[in-house]
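Incident log, structure service

09:12 report received: a user says their structure output differs between two submissions of the same chain.
09:20 pulled the input from the user's history:
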Amino acid sequence: MEIRLMNDSDDRKAISKIYEESWKFAYQGLIPQDYLDGIPTGNWAKAVDTPGWNTLLMLDGDQIVGTASYCHSRFEDWKDYGEIISIYFLPAYMGKGYGRALLQAAVDKLAEMGCTDILLWVLAENERAKKFYEKNGFSASGAYLDDNIGGKSLKELQYVRHVETREE
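09:34 re-ran on a clean worker, output below:
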């Protein structure tokens, strides 16, 4: 497995496919099924090129199997934080330990950017994801966002982690 930064020649639709398949698998029973079934092909293809975002890819040979995006926090209340925007895998690659490596790579990149505190958001009902983040040094901060996806009211919990930078 190789982890590297996304480059201009990477297929944005292949990256979007990871989001699409991951959402359809991981969010079953959490987000309305008709919403998941209706996610269009290429839905996230443009999002990975959002100015200020950085995207890591995990490759198995030539196939992109995982992706993580990160940036300086998008939220004014946490402007001094780094943020992990997303981390997704093709379902066949979930639960095999690859997530830990990709998450740590994103944390390391944020630390290189000078971020000593990192935040991310996770659906309150997503027990699997919460356990994953907790095993990897994140803890719930008590902050949350109210969201609505597919007509269902959802709560996103903020998880945070402190990291040492090279200067500390």
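09:41 both user submissions now match this output. Likely a transient worker issue. Closing.
09:42 reviewer note: The domain at 2-115 is CATH 3.40.630.30 (Aminopeptidase). Residues 12-26 form the longest helix (15 residues).
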